[in-house]
Amino acid sequence: MIFTIFIHRLKEWGFERGWGDTTGRVKDTIRIFSEILQASDLVNLEELFNRVPKIFNVVIFSIHGYFGQADVLGMPDIGGQVVYILVRVRALEDELLLRIKQQD
């Protein structure tokens, strides 16, 4: 409830969503941005850019059978490569969704 009021107040002041998903995170992001405007330095720039989601779409391409193996191109995988890539994709998706959620 309080965060909703806070978001509406920010919108009245001209700020769009994306500064953070909690009042503390919004406050930190605005503080970092303010410091950059006053006197930019690499530490604050890096911290601000680390908060902003930059990747929204990912294409996964498995090279199974293309390199280092003979006569496997077109052959079915025994499951290891498929399971591995699915686990990695799920972890990547979870991380991307978390970062997008944190920016509201």
From TrEMBL:
Which Pfam families has this protein been placed in? Answer: GT-B_Sucrose_synth (PF00862)
State the Gene Ontology BP annotations.
sucrose metabolic process
- InterPro entries xref list: Sucrose_synth_GT-B1 (IPR000368), Sucrose_synthase_pln/cyn (IPR012820)
UniProt GO MF annotations: sucrose synthase activity
Say which family it is in. Answer: Belongs to the glycosyltransferase 1 family. Plant sucrose synthase subfamily.
Alphabetized UniProt keyword annotations: Glycosyltransferase, Transferase
Q: Taking every annotated instance into account, which residue ranges of this chain make up the domain Sucrose synthase first GT-B?
A: 44-103
User: Briefly, what is this protein's role?
Assistant: Sucrose-cleaving enzyme that provides UDP-glucose and fructose for various metabolic pathways.
Q: What is its EC number?
A: 2.4.1.13
**In the record, which residues are listed under signal peptide?**
none
What is the reaction catalyzed?
A: an NDP-alpha-D-glucose + D-fructose = a ribonucleoside 5'-diphosphate + sucrose + H(+)
**Organism this protein belongs to:** Clitoria ternatea (Butterfly pea)
Provide the protein name. Answer: sucrose synthase
